[in-house]
């Protein structure tokens, strides 16, 4: 507001209104944008190396959201260079993350294919609530259930809850440790040996023929986590997974990859002939770990990868009590024969 005052000499003194102008220093703006810019370079270039970089790279979605702060500071600093770097950083991280929230356009011919549903659940040393797992199987009627950290006790608990009647066919490599895994199926299955070199926990593979003749190969994935010296085996385990075939039986990898799509090694697995079901369906940012903790789940490391001939119709994530992983259920459509 302007204030005017009459003076003895007949003049008028005008006092202009003062506007509050917030400004931050250029140094502060550069200090804020530098770590985010470095993160964007690491993410886009797939430059994470070693255990610690591999672990923090899973936080890229949060870094993308946090990168908006340096943009604001850059604008308030009135420095064009730092503002441009901040905007480029946010754009780079956004391009890396946001597509997972929107998914791909649905495939028109998917509805005419052969429906196939797969569920995967890490049972946390066999402690995951068997009744909840079986209730999910009963409700969603998956053709196959992949389990990780499957113990002999967990097998007994699942069968006691009704899984034996719902999925009588199985190929199990259960153990009293985190290494145990097992594939349960509604349809007859046979073990599939020699498909790839297993590096990490047990990763059974099986093949089945669906009513109508479609043949599907299933791999129950559970790589080691990238902790300390295990990061080398984590890398080798991901690289050893079989590629997606362009012909012949369909192939699906499902389980606990201990990796997110922000890991270069995980993106390389997908690039070898797969589509990530969560990414394709628009649920790729739904976190799956760590569940049932004081903090909500933060990162997405449980995946279903279907070879590129397979369409993704639905993707769902559910909490299972007493395990630190959420279960993933994916509805797929296999191309009809002929």
Please provide a written account of the structure.
Helix content is 33%, strand content 24%. The protein is an alpha+beta fold and 338 residues long. The strands form 3 sheets. A 6-stranded mixed beta sheet has the order 5-6-4-3-14-13. The protein has a 6-stranded mixed beta sheet with strand order 7-8-9-10-12-11. Strands 1-2 form a two-stranded antiparallel sheet. Strand 3, helix 7 and strand 4 (144-148) form a beta-alpha-beta unit. The longest helix is centred in the N-terminal third of the chain and has 20 residues, at 26-45. The N and C termini lie far apart (79 Å).
Keywords:
6-stranded mixed beta sheet; alpha+beta; 12 helices; 338 residues
String of helices and strands: EEHHHHHHEHEHHEEEEEHEHEHEEE
How would a crystallographer describe the biggest sheet? Answer: 6 strands, mixed
Q: How far apart lie the N and C ends?
A: 79 Å
Gyration radius from CA atoms, angstroms: 26 Å
Sheet-strand content, in percent, reads: 15-25%
Fraction of residues in H or I helices: 25-40%
Structural class by sheet pairing and helices: alpha+beta
Give me the side-by-side strand order of the main sheet. 5-6-4-3-14-13
- Per DSSP, the total helix count is 12
Overall pLDDT metric: 93
């Amino acid at each position: 507001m302007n204030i005017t005052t009459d003076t003895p000499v007949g003049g008028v003194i005008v006092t202009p209104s003062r506007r509050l102008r917030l400004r931050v220093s250029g140094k502060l703006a550069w200090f804020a944008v530098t770590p985010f810019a470095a993160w964007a370079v690491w993410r886009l270039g797939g430059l994470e190396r070693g255990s610690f970089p591999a672990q923090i790279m899973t936080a890229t979605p949060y870094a993308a959201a946090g990168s908006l702060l340096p943009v604001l500071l850059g604008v308030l600093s009135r420095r064009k260079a730092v503002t441009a770097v901040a905007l480029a950083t946010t754009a780079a991280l956004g391009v890396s993350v946001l597509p997972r929230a929107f998914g791909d356009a649905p495939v028109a011919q998917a509805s005419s294919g052969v429906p196939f549903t797969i569920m995967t659940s890490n049972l946390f040393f066999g402690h995951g609530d068997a009744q909840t797992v079986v209730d999910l199987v009963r409700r969603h009627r998956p053709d196959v259930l992949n389990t990780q950290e499957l113990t002999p006790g967990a097998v007994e608990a699942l069968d006691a809850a009704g899984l034996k009647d719902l999925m009588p066919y199985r190929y199990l490599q259960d153990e009293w440790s985190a290494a145990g895994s097992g594939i349960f199926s509604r349809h007859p299955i046979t073990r599939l040996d020699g498909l790839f070199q297993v590096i990490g926990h047990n990763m059974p593979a099986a093949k089945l023929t669906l009513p109508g003749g479609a043949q599907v190969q299933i791999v129950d994935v559970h790589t080691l986590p990238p902790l300390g010296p295990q990061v080398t085996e984590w890398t080798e385990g991901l690289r050893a997974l079989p590629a997606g075939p362009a012909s012949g039986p369909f192939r699906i990898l499902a389980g606990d990859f201990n990796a997110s799509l922000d890991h270069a090694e995980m993106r390389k697995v997908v690039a070898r002939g797969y589509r990530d079901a969560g990414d394709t369906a628009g649920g790729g940012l739904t976190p799956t770990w760590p569940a049932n903790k004081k903090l909500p789940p933060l990162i997405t490391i449980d995946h279903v990868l279907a070879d590129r001939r397979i369409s993704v119709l639905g993707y769902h994530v559910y909490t299972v009590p007493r395990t630190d992983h959420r279960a993933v259920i994916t509805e797929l459509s296999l191309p009809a024969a002929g």
